[in-house]
Design brief:
With about 280 residues, this protein is α/β, with parallel strands linked by helices. About 50% of the residues lie in helices and about 20% in strands. The protein has eleven helices and nine strands. It has an eight-stranded mixed barrel, surrounded by five helices. It binds ligand C2E and magnesium ion (3 copies). This is Phosphodiesterase. One of its GO terms (molecular function) is cyclic-guanylate-specific phosphodiesterase activity. It comes from Variovorax guangxiensis.
Length: about 280
């Protein structure tokens, strides 16, 4: 009989809960030290622009090499950083580092008459609503000697669940600066068509969970086709996320997707590898 506090199962459950809470505390502690100890870096995943066959955009993705835990996925630590407010300083580091890298690529490519792809930076809900975000972005661009045409900001719809009016006002200011805005992971979670009409996004990124079925006859194809037409009808460009196979790429091209991003084109790349790719140098 399950008496309060008794039984092997209840004990096991309590222990499991306790070790989960301890893991979480440990992660928070390590995360608090990560910035000042230089444990973060950025990788960049190129997107293929189908109409030209060129790389016009790339996404900056955060990496954390933790000495105690090894590499930790942003899918695991970004939500924790968001919960404890650390995403604000970490996000500022990401923005400044991404701009600095594009500035460096710009100087290198200028020698060959080229220009770097526009960099897309992920901004989380808490960060978007933090005071001074717009000024921080302006200063990151200015410090790197870049105009707004070099930057795109990716947000997810969960942003609108918190404080939709303030989120919209901030997005509006960013857009007025000339920065492009993309709605990320479209087709998952809280996707709602009403956000698309309330706010003029420049780009819609179709989530990998939909893109992976685009080469399946029937529903998988129909859903992506409908999203691409909807986005185009609303004046948005479309990026497909998570393209892994030639069959998917072929379908996405037939559907007139604008850009595709995925392991089937390139994985997220270290800056030095990206640099060689953009300069047309043979891979290391
Ligand atoms: P996201 O913004 O949707 O980024 C795309 C994710 O899909 C990246 O995972 C990328 O490596 C992965 N991906 C790209 N192509 C493929 C593919 O073909 N197959 C598969 N299986 N995966 C693919 P990553 O780098 O692990 O990032 C996960 C999430 O963490 C991001 O999803 C984003 O929500 C968040 N994140 C990453 N960097 C940052 C950042 O600097 N700031 C914030 N706020 N969030 C970030
Ligand atoms: Mg993204
Ligand atoms: Mg995404
Ligand atoms: Mg995602």
């Amino acid at each position: 009989a399950a008496k309060a506090g008794g039984g092997a199962q209840a004990r096991w459950f309590r222990n499991a809960m306790q070790s989960q809470a301890e893991d979480r505390l440990q992660l928070e502690g390590l995360l608090r030290e990560a910035l000042e100890r230089n444990q973060f870096s950025l990788v960049f995943q190129p997107q293929l622009h189908l109409a030209t066959g060129r790389i016009q955009h790339m996404e900056a993705l955060l990496r954390w090499q933790c000495p105690a835990l090894g590499p930790v996925s942003p899918a695991a630590f970004v939500p924790v950083a968001e919960d404890i407010g650390l995403i604000v300083p970490i996000g500022e580091w990401v923005m400044r580092e991404a701009c600095r890298e594009v500035g460096r690529l710009r100087r290198l490519l200028a020698l060959k008459g080229g220009r770097p792809p526009r960099v897309a930076v992920n901004v989380s809900a808490h960060q978007l609503l933090s005071p001074g975000l717009v000024e921080m972005v302006q200063s990151a661009l200015a410090d790197a000697g870049l105009g707004p045409e070099h930057l795109e900001i990716e947000i997810t719809e969960s942003i609108f669940l918190q404080d939709a009016d303030r989120a919209l006002a901030t997005l509006e200011s960013l857009r007025q600066l000339g920065i492009e805005l993309a709605i990320d992971d479209f087709g998952t979670g809280y996707s709602s068509f009403s956000y698309l009409t309330q706010f003029p996004f420049d780009r819609l990124k179709i989530d990998r969970s939909l893109v992976m079925n685009v080469d399946q006859p029937g529903k998988g194809y129909a859903i992506v086709a409908a999203i691409v037409s909807l986005a185009h009808a609303l004046g948005m460009k479309v990026t497909a996320e998570g393209m892994e196979t030639p069959a998917q790429a072929e379908q996405l091209e037939a559907l007139q997707c604008d850009d595709i991003q995925g392991y089937g084109f390139h994985r997220p790349l270290q800056p030095k590898v990206l640099e060689r790719l953009l300069l047309g140098a043979p891979p290391l």
